[in-house]
Every structure is written in C-alpha cells, then in structure tokens.
Design goal:
This protein is α/β, with parallel strands linked by helices. About 35% of the residues lie in helices and about 20% in strands. A four-stranded parallel sheet has the order 3-4-10-5, with helices on both faces. A hairpin with a 5-residue loop joins strand 8 and strand 9. Helix 5 packs across helix 6. It is globular. The relative contact order is 0.15.
Length: about 250
Amino acid sequence: DWMEQEQERGITITSAATTCAWTDPLNDDRYVVNIIDTPGHVDFTAEVERSLRVLDGAVAVFDGKEGVEAQSETVWRQANKYKVPRLAFINKMDKIGANFKKAVDSMVRRLNANPIAVQLPWGQETELQGTIDLIEMRAVTFEGDKGVNRVHHEIPSDLKDEAEMARMEMIEKLADIDDEIGELFLEEKQDQVTNEMIRSALRAGTLGFKCIPVFCGSALRDKGVQEVLDGVVWYLPSPTDIPPVDAFD
C-alpha cells in the first residue's frame, strides 16, 4: 500500500503489483510469483474487476471470525465470471471468535463452493501456535524474525484424532475428482493414497474449478504465509497453463 491515504486508513484503494521469488520445498525448483494485491473494500470493486481480467489464479482471503462477508460474495462472482482458479486463505485465526470450521462451512453455504481443507489451525484465537499439515500429517510452527523459519513437529496427541478425520474427509472429497484416489477409496485402501496423488488431484481439481484448497493462519503474526506460497506454486496455474485470452470487437 503505497498511497498516503492507504497507509493512513490501513486499507487497499488501488491494485498494486509486486514480485517475489519462491522455492518449491519438494524439489528446490525456483519460481517467480507475480502478485496483484486488490482492494477488499466494496467502494473499490472496479479495481478488483480490472485485476481479475488478467490474473492466472487468485488467493481469496477470508476473515477467521466472519467467514464469507458480503464483499467476498461479490469478488467470488467476479472470479467465476472470468474463470479464475483459486485457493482460499482463512486469515486472522488469532482473532477472538475465530472459528476455522465455521469459516469453511460459510464457503459452502454462501458461495456454493467445494472447499477442501489441506490444513487445520494448531490452536485458535490467542492460543494460535501454527498449522497442521493434513497432507504430510505434521504440525508446523513459524519461528525467527517474521516467522521465516518453518519448524516441523509431531501432531499434538489431543489433535491427532481431529487431524486424521480431516485427512480422511480430504481424501473422500478428492475421490470424487480423481479416479485413482476414487478406486482406492471405494476399496477402503485410503492408506495407499500417496501425498503426490493428493497434490496432483488438488491441482487438477483447482484448475478444473472442482475444488478450492483451503489454508489457514495469521498474516499479521506471520503464521501460515509460506504454506500459502507453496499452495500457489503447487495448485494455481502458471501463465503457460492458461489458454490465450479471446479478444472481441
């Protein structure tokens, strides 16, 4: 946010572009991610429309307490109109009243979406410590300056059952999208579903508008941001995956 009015009010007024480099932790491939930060406020919705016209993929950010709000619906419809594949990030999980499950349910109820949680929050509200990765089945904390160091832990025993149920739910939803996972699910061989198969199905589902991978965290506290960038690299399209834009007179 470079404008004086934006900095004073703490909101985005005009869309701004920036670039960052990101390394895929699975294979050390290096990517350039071009980011367009769009306004969230209803008064500047034309800026969002302008940006969606040229975006390859989007990260829809929701409030952990409020879930889907009125402006979220507007932007979602715009993204549908321009056929933009997207991820969801449930932000502000450190906020009093934040509820991850409720926020995800609001996406089903109000956006008619098919969200698939790939993470759970480790703690909520003031107790937020990090995230639980449902693909790798491990807990992650973000330590050091600006949470730059990802530290992996065993899933705490009191969250193990919840994490296993959430992983099973993720596989069940992917079974409707991916034939190979679907066969293993019907044969009750869920333990044979590999992490590569899950990521491949999530990517296909995202690009085919069949599902929305859901991440969570707190951007202000630098928790969960790296995981979202991994998701951008794994699940959202690169410019080469997108057909050329059709112009019309």
